[in-house]
Amino acid sequence: MARSLADSPEQIQVKEIGGGRTSIFQLRMAKEDLGQLIGKKGRNANALRTVLGAVAIKLGKTAILEIIE
């Protein structure tokens, strides 16, 4: 989903740090694409977190999304 929002999708990297029931996903991207990913008032970022959280709940886990430039 993040790749479809970015002008430089090849620079997007996702790293999962797992630990039991909680997983932290670190999303790294180009600095110039950061605004597009976050969106107005954080709407895009919140939507990504909502989708990630819904998938995690189905798996019986908790997921956290960290956006890093």
According to CATH, the fold-level topology is: GMP Synthetase, Chain A, domain 3
Relevant CATH superfamily: K homology (KH) domain
CATH architecture: 2-Layer Sandwich
Unreliable spans: none
Number of strands: 3
- Helical element count? 3
Rg for CA atoms: 12 Å
Report what the structure shows.
With 69 residues, the chain is an alpha+beta fold. It has one domain: 2-Layer Sandwich (GMP Synthetase, Chain A, domain 3). It is built from three helices and three strands; from the N terminus they run H-E-E-H-H-E. The protein has helices at 2-5, 34-38, 43-58, and strands at residues 13-19, 22-28, 62-68. Strands 1-2-3 form a three-stranded mixed beta sheet, covered by helices on one side. The chain starts with a helix and ends with a strand. The mean pLDDT is 92.
Notable traits:
single chain, 69 residues, alpha+beta, 3-stranded mixed sheet, 3 helices, 36% helix, globular
Question: What can be said about this structure in brief?
Answer:
With 69 residues, this protein is an alpha+beta fold. The chain is 36% helix and 30% strand.
List the helices and strands and how they pair.
Blueprint: H1 2-5, E1 13-19, E2 22-28, H2 34-38, H3 43-58, E3 62-68
Parallel strand pairs: 2-3
Antiparallel strand pairs: 1-2
